[in-house]
Amino acid sequence: MSTQQTHPTVPLYHPPAPSPFSLPDPDSVAGYKLIELPPDLVALLEGENPPVLTISPSPTSALLSVPSTSKSYSLRQKNTSNALIILEPTDTSGLKAIATLHETVELVPVPTTAAAPEVKKRGKWHEKFASGRK
After folding, report:
1. Which of 26, 34, 87, 96 is the most exposed place for a label (fewest CB within 10 A)?
2. Which segments show compositional bias classed as Pro residues (predicted)?
3. Distances from the Cα of 65 to the Cαs of 12, 17, 40, 97, in angstroms?
């Protein structure tokens, strides 16, 4: 009896890498970014009245804002050690790899602005030690 069993398989087609000296056809190249959505944002987007989201720049990163809830999220890129492959079906009942991703975008909630912490006054170095000399 054979130790190998026959399982139905789906053929995977991955287009060959382009030559380093040729430019890719802009119509055939699709750029993908995967965004990890927090559960509360998923619930809002799947609700009856999904909000309009806006992306705006900030000094440190891009911000995704949900105006109806006054929430904002900072967009941060995360690199992954394992590649994520996006597939699409082919005409010959197989799968074709259309993109390989090595990073995702995560949304980090931005805390609402709170009062700035009180800064403790610090004296000059010579004032700290001069008070003990009197």
Report:
1. 26
2. 13-23
3. 39, 38, 13, 33
Q: Is the pTM of this model over 0.70?
A: no
Q: How far is CA 69 from CA 11, 53, 62, 65, in A?
A: 46, 11, 18, 9
pLDDT tens readout for residues 13-23: 555 555 555 55
Q: Which of 15, 37, 43, 38 is nearest to 28 (CA)?
A: 15
What does the alpha-carbon distance between residue 59 and residue 73 come to, in Å, rounded to a whole number? 14
**How far apart, in whole angstroms, are the C-alpha atoms of residue 130 and residue 134?**
7
C-alpha closest to that of 76 among 111, 32, 43, 35? 35
8-state DSSP, 131:
G
- pLDDT band for position 97 (50/70/90)? confident
C-beta neighbour count of 72 within 10 angstroms? 19
